Amino acid sequence: MPTSPAIVAMIPARLGSTRFPEKVLASRTGKPLIQHVYENALRAKRPQSVIIATDHERVRAACTGFGARVVMTDEAHPNGTSRLAQAARVLGLQGDDIVVNVQGDEPEMEPEVIDACVDALVAMSSLDMGVGMATIGSPWNEADDPGNQAIVKVVASNGVPGLPGVYGVRRALYFSRSRIPYPRNSIGASEHAHLLRHVGLYAYRNRFLQRYVTLEPTPLEQIESLEQLRVLEHGYPIALVIAESRGTGIDTPEQYEAFVRRVN
Predict the structure, then answer these.
(1) Judgement on whether residues 222 and 137 belong to the same structural domain of the protein
(2) Percent of the chain with pLDDT over 90
């Protein structure tokens, strides 16, 4: 009797960081940042396990210190996706197994958003075997500025034929740092039902994850500096589920200080 695919949440945790060196080990809350990410991911219901993939012994030691399972990966990965692909191979994951990429600097990612991303991938791939990847689009918060190039935007399809609307699942049409679509008729961006703030959480079928890392970088990916555009440019669809998320990544010491104040 066939077994159900495994669902594994993986957290890439590189020690080096240009804007905030060694941020995954920052511990002014009393815990390293990576521990906050790990404990938050454990609260999600769909993943059966949470694993940290790192390139450095200091990160491994810190993570095993709070009880996490760690996979060591090469230092020279170009991005976290490539690191997770190697970790999936080390773990011997099968093609249909699901890998959830939980960013190592996202300590406030809602567990229910992680679950929604997995559900979107399962729902879409049940209809279309070409769908091997899912991500999240969140409605805009009032404080968000659609013109801010640091906030990635995504526009989505109206729906997916054959998939009940209750899933809230779409196909991602395009991602950009620019304000898209352009409000030619002075309609505010937040009023566009399908203009969403992209949340950098991904779920992959392992088969597609291994394929993705063999794809050549693409012009739009390089122009926008958004690796998910590589998938669209090579002709592969991305499932996108609408789920509200208020979590923000930590890229700078200033953002970490704000996180410390929220936690303490």
Answers:
(1) yes
(2) 69
Residues 36 and 78 in one domain: yes
**Range of the structural domain that residue 191 is part of:** 111-246
Q: Give the phi and the psi of residue 201 in degrees, each rounded to 5.
A: -120, 135
Residue 157 shares a structural domain with residue 184: yes
Residues 178 and 88 placed together within one structural domain of the fold: no
Q: Please report the pLDDT score of residue 163 as a whole number.
A: 63
- Same-domain status, 187 and 69: no
pTM confidence score:
0.92
Looking at per-residue pLDDT, the higher value among 1 and 94 belongs to: 94
**Peptide bond just before 139 cis, omega within 30 deg:** no
For residue 81, give Cα distances in angstroms to 2, 94, 99, 100, 103: 28, 17, 10, 10, 10
Looking at the fold, whether 78 and 157 belong to one and the same domain comes out as no
Each residue's pLDDT tens digit, 197-221:
999 999 999 999 999 999 999 999 9
Determine the Cα–Cα distance for residues 26 and 34; give it in Å rounded to an integer: 8
Which CATH number belongs to the domain containing residue 124 in this structure?
Answer: 3.90.550.10
Q: Are 221 and 233 in contact (CB under 8 A)?
A: yes
- For the chain, the domain total comes to 2
- What gap in Å lies between CA 36 and CA 24, rounded to an integer? 10
Across 15-40, average pLDDT: 93
For residue 7, the surrounding DSSP H or E stretch is strand 7-13
User: In the numeric block, which tokens belong to residue 258?
Assistant: 């704000």
Could you tell me which residues are beta bridge partners of residue 13?
54
* 162 has a pLDDT exceeding 80: no
**CB atoms inside a 10 Å sphere around CB 5:** 17
Do 97 and 12 fall into the same domain?
yes
